[in-house]
Amino acid sequence: MKYVLISGGVVSGLGKGVTASSIGVVLKACGLRVTSIKIDPYLNIDAGTMSPFEHGEVFVLDDGGEVDLDLGNYERFLDVTLTKDNNITTGKIYQSVLEKERKGDYLGKTVQVVPHITDAIKDWIESVAVIPVDGKEGPADVCVIELGGTVGDIESMPFIEALRQLSFQVGPDNFCLIHVSLVPVLGVVGEQKTKPTQHSVRELRALGLTPHLLTSRSAEPLLESTKEKLSKFCHVPIENILNIHDVPNIWHIPLQATPPDLQQWTEMAETFDSLTESVRIAMVGKYVGLTDSYLSVVKALLHACVARSFKPSIDWIAASDLEDESAKSTPEAHAAAWTTLKVNALALHCVLVPGGFGDRGVRGMMLAAKYARENNVPYLGICLGMQISVIEFARSVLGWEKANSVEFDAQTPNPVVIFMPEGSRTHMGSTMRLGSRRTLLQTSDCITSKLYGSSEYVDERHRHRYEVNPDVIGTLEEAGLQFVGKDESGKRMEILELPSHPFYVGVQFHPEFKSRPARPSALFLGLILAATGKLEAYISRQNGS
After folding, report:
1. pLDDT band at 263 (very low <50, low <70, confident <90, very high)
2. At what angle do helices 331-346 and 362-374 cross, to 10 degrees?
3. Among residues 392, 467, 494, 512, which one is catalytic?
4. pLDDT: is 187 or 170 the higher one?
5. Which of 349, 383, 446, 460 is catalytic?
6. pTM of the model
7. What gap in Å lies between CA 302 and CA 321, rounded to an integer?
8. Active site (annotated) includes residue 383
């Protein structure tokens, strides 16, 4: 097994995840099989209980793992299916060591960071590295490891020590360290400054690791004189200094190295750059202040738009700004939010309501769903977005004015969304309905079936606690709402459509997690087709009619 370690210096947020993913793409193009590991030094067991505002989206894997969003980058770039063990956290490591200590596995030894924690880290890396993630048998050739955080952080010290030991253990022919650092330009001087990178590399070397390659992040391409300086003071050959400067889109990143055959990536990057027409998408959500909260949704929209030769133009609307209370407290924001929503509607574009938790902004989401339903604007509701459409329909069409989810109103007289017994009411971590689940299609004569090209079932990833109440399904369907996808028990509603509407679809699962650059999600593709008036023609062609 060959190991490629990606570390970061100077500041966080330099794009280590995209760098690690891009290196994987280049290695795959060389004919190697690649797997990935993300190390997160925080104490949480996983990312499941973290606020999207603090850590971005929680990415969900097939096996139900709630992991860092960088694993989403790995899956999209490398087209692999990772496991929850591909995300290592301090919490997981300490938990495993303490469980062994309680069982007496250490035979009375004093349990210490070195060697017990560091050994646990090495064992975890080596055991996960051999798990196939590309659908083939046998282990991968290369394991790309991204070390989260910044060199020098106290919390990452045990991992750096473990990786130092691993590099010595496997030998120099099997271990490569790539250090990602920042080369800033000071506005007054206008000179590319290498000192931050020099200090970062010095810190790394003091901890026993010497980088083989430097990946320098900068706004503009590095000057030769800058590369020479970095080479001289960081002890890295000049030909091993890679420059990742700002590019129009991230599909250019794998092309920054001297690439092997990356024709598909080159075509994708150039195609996206050449697009001129755009689709306006109103994204009505709770966490719009941090776009990384919806990273996979944004990527899925990108994949679908590019597949139809459009650029996505996302109008971010804070759901709470649409609510009546906002008209009094923040009238300008309220007016702007409604103007944005109506502009999209008039331009025959679309509305998307993504997932979320808690009651903040829920009334605004209902107003957006109602507007889309009544004005024939293409609508896609994901997870909470589906539940919102059910609540809104029950209130507006059935006349159940107090219809609600028990998540928002435990005493509602019309509980159209209820807690279903696959999770815990008292614990939050890993207690939801998680991972890939099968949805059985109830009819082939529906938009979803035609978009997926399947009349039987679809497999998608889930992350939720609440479900549409099966007791009200009959009443809702009599009023015109159609539930075209259910789980294998028939009690959990997975997909809804409104047949009288051009495209009004709600799904309990998260189709964005399995979208890929060359294989866009069927439902996101359907939304973009409907937004551009091409859905019927596409379905006719797909079905040979």
Report:
1. confident
2. 30
3. 512
4. 170
5. 383
6. 0.93
7. 25
8. yes
